[in-house]
Specification:
The chain has 2 domains: about 120 residues, DNA polymerase, domain 1 (Orthogonal Bundle), CATH 1.10.150; about 200 residues, hpI Integrase, Chain A, CATH 1.10.443. It is built from 14 helices and 5 strands. The longest helix is centred in the C-terminal third of the chain and has 24 residues.
């Protein structure tokens, strides 16, 4: 038995296997992987989906041609009720399982004939609208997730700087990674970057903005690893520099820190010369937040949320902020916007004052 690059069964063959169930299931996963590769899905997406299907099979102790909707109810009921998985996680897992079942149940790929020959039955779809989660709203992030306040952000950056000074004073080698991460956190905020975007930055990604010469050679940042659309390569975008203090941070890092870590182009390399790991960044970020007693609703993505929020609060045009963040739709940018109560009060005050002035002007006329 073999599958082609599109995931179709090439031939049933006459070979008898000692454990045909394991062989067929393994070939199903291989064929599904090929089918997803032909759709140009990322390797990370494919690997995650394959792990979910394998986990589902091990949990049910049944094979795809034996699965029923009851297995779906039991598996995801346990995930939600016992393990307390997030709604978005449940929906993502169910989408992966639905896609796999659609693949093996389709007669176009030939698994129905294989299963009929070996097991006298065939796989079918077991995920339906009535037993899976529905994507009912655009924003399903955890309600605890939020941006930093300006005071919290300043305290966080001060904590990161203090860590560099503390380690350097002790004469330890760890001051350089601490310095790198402090700069990385600031860059993520200053240009509104996602974690993966800032990790992949290189020294050549900065350029001059002829309309903002005060920023020198750091007037524009070319983001090359933006969040990809389904089946597409990473999305590129240009982010204009807006904070006058951000250029000093990058220039200082390139002069005093970067040359001691690498002679390559990566802006934030690890001590081994590879990209700094997400795990290491999360660990340091969480430690700083815990040291400051900040709420658990803050994560590295909160730096990006803060960027959008603070630009809106400062009066930046909403369309400009949308383009800076790389969002296709204004509604997506709106999900990131969480303006402070002080800003809302000032906005209301301006609107009320304008209304009163117009009313008084009308009475004078």
């Amino acid at each position: 038995m073999a599958v082609d690059s599109a995931g179709r069964v090439l031939g049933l063959g006459a070979v008898h296997f000692l454990h045909p169930e394991d062989v067929v299931f393994a070939q199903m996963l291989t064929g599904w992987r090929n089918q997803q590769l032909s759709r140009n899905l990322s390797f990370g997406t494919i690997d995650g989906r394959e792990r979910l299907v394998t986990r589902f099979q091990e949990s049910t102790n049944e094979y795809p041609w034996q699965w029923t909707p009851a297995h779906v109810d039991e598996f995801f009921g346990d995930l939600r009720g016992v393990k307390h998985a997030a709604q978005s996680t449940i929906r993502s897992y169910q989408a992966a399982l639905r896609a796999f079942c659609s693949y093996v149940a389709s007669p176009d790929y030939g698994w129905d004939r294989v299963c009929e020959q070996y097991f006298g039955t065939h796989p079918s779809q077991v995920c339906f609208d009535w037993n899976t989660a529905v994507h009912a709203q655009s924003n399903e992030s955890h309600p605890k997730r939020r941006p930093f306040t300006r005071q919290e952000l300043q305290a966080f950056f001060d904590r990161a700087d203090d860590e560099v000074d503390r380690i350097a004073t002790l004469g330890r080698k760890g001051w350089l990674p601490a310095y790198r991460d402090a700069v990385l956190f600031k860059v993520a905020y200053c240009w509104g970057l996602r974690r993966n975007e800032v990790r992949h930055l290189q020294t050549v990604d900065f350029a001059r903005n002829p309309h903002a010469r005060e920023f020198g050679k750091y007037g524009v940042l070319q983001v090359r690893y933006g969040k990809a659309m389904k089946g597409s390569p990473p999305k590129r975008r240009s982010v204009l520099t807006v904070f006058d203090w951000s250029t000093e941070i990058v220039a200082d890092w390139l002069e005093r820190g970067h040359p001691h870590m690498t002679d390559g182009l990566d802006l934030f390399p690890s001590e081994r010369g590879t990209l700094v790991s997400e795990t290491a960044l999360n660990r340091r970020f969480n430690r700083y937040c815990e040291d400051l007693g900040l709420s658990p609703g803050l994560d590295i993505h909160s730096l990006r949320r803060s960027y959008v929020t603070h630009l809106i609060e400062s009066g930046m045009d909403a369309l400009f902020v949308q383009h800076q963040a790389g969002h296709e739709h204004a509604s997506t940018t709106a999900l990131y916007t969480s303006v402070s109560s002080d800003y809302r009060v000032k906005t209301l005050r301006r609107a009320l004052d304008s209304t009163i002035r117009d009313a008084l002007a009308g009475m004078e006329d």
